[in-house]
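Subject: for your reference before the review

Hello V.,

The reviewers asked for a structural picture of the protein, and I figured it would be easier to keep everything in one thread rather than splitting it across files. Below is the amino acid sequence we used in the manuscript, unchanged from the supplementary table.
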Amino acid sequence: MITTRRLSHTLSLLQWEARYRDTFVIALLWAMALASALARPLTPIDETRYVSVAWEMWNAHAFWLPLMNGEAYADKPPLLFWLIQSGWSLFGVNDWWPKLISPLASLVAMMHLYRIARRLGYAGSQARLAPMVLSAMLMWSLYSSALMFDVLLSACLLGTISPLIAGVFTLRKASISGIWLGLALLAKGPAAFVTLAPILLTIPLWRATPLGQSGRRHLALALMLGFAMLLAWALPAAWIGGRDYAQDLLWGQSVNRLQHAMAHARPTWWYLPWLPLLAFPWSLSSGAWWRLPTYRHQRLAWIWLAGPLLAFSLISGKQIHYLMPLLPALALLVMDGLGRVDPRQVLRPRLAAAAIVVLGVVALGLGVFGADAVTRSMVSPFGILVLIAFAVILWRQRWHGGAEAARGLALGTGIAVLIATQLMLAPLWSRYDVSAASQLLARLELDGVPVAFNGDGYQATFQFAGRLKKPLVTLSGDPAELCEFRHRAPDGWIVGRDRDLRSLIANDGAAHVFDYRGGKLDIVPVRALALDSRIPACDG
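And here is what came back from the structure prediction:
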């Protein structure tokens, strides 16, 4: 009897130890994503655009209508902007709160994923591997520190799917699912259904028990609730924004995104070469987790992965981050594989270490033999050496058991990503920091000086960083438009990339020059431009 009690007590302690170990690893991976987000500036053009939209809404007290550079912004629904403004309401306008949103959304997504794994029937010790696998994926780790919509959308979709997994689909579960669906639609619009529709249409294939008549009614109510939340915002916003905005919002951002005319149009096969990178480091395996589903609980992950991937491939516009909502399904597959196969067959830490060394060598090559000085200045030699040294440490690791191997590889990848982004690429972030240029624009605005941006690529980049209260005039780059602006505002200033303005600057001493992305940014008085040589009539 004593022996049995001692054995039971020992097993209980081991279970608690494993639980704490897994929780610690997940927390550490999340903390590294959080550190990456806080350590670098918001970068153009995406992050600065989204925070500037929130800033313009805040400054104009336009809670319902997103604004960019003084005009209605129809490209994205308002959830991200509302979350940014909610934090500002609590903590005041600041730079750090917007950077926290994606890491917090990632944390919510991992909690949902663990709950989904449990409801699929996996034991807690294995279910905890799912969020660990997800947070260690290279692309998830990178986007968890970026102010974008995709991790937020993924968290909302996971919240929608979780109540559907098992048990009676009650009215309470339908309400929870419907609210999360509404948030997903407010995060990225009807594009959420590219991921969700294949899952909903195949419920009989993967659900352990049928929904039944009441379950189907509750599912319909959940869908109605989600759409009601979207329409409660979209219809008033369309009314406030006017006819053109309404057309872009209610039609252009859904139907037109399927057409070849959309930006980022790419061939059907474009996503396929990216799949190993999306799954890294778990793509460095023997392929054991790629087995076709033999059990009902495995079907959900495959449907979740394959159906939306096919749909995204058929849609004209393609970006790698569009696939972010598919990574939780990939994490479920990897988790299932880790539980079924000898870890020595599934995980190869030396391949991961070799891949990290290759990354360091390529970066070192760019730093030494880059095409120009800008390219050579974007990587830190010290950061490269630290990354390669860490890869050597990873190479020497020996793990015993699937859970230990998963923890080791997850932590190894997370630390490597942190080293790469915060040490190796540290010089890159300074080139993407728009604070200095924005402060100059803020001083010009305070002095009442008209400012115009000349050329393409400006999407409210400086509005939040400079806390600007007026939109910049936008010019196409045509010298005739510069001439017209000089006539209207002879004391005005021009902002533009060096490649667009350098040939027009007559007085180099009058130009303020800043590092900007892959080149330089010029801010110069319009009178310092030699427009007469390009347009003789421009003598203003």
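For the response letter, the relevant points are probably these. Confidence is low (pLDDT under 50) at residues 7-16. The chain has three domains: 2-42+95-243+264-346, 349-431, 435-528.

Happy to draft the paragraph if you're swamped.

O.
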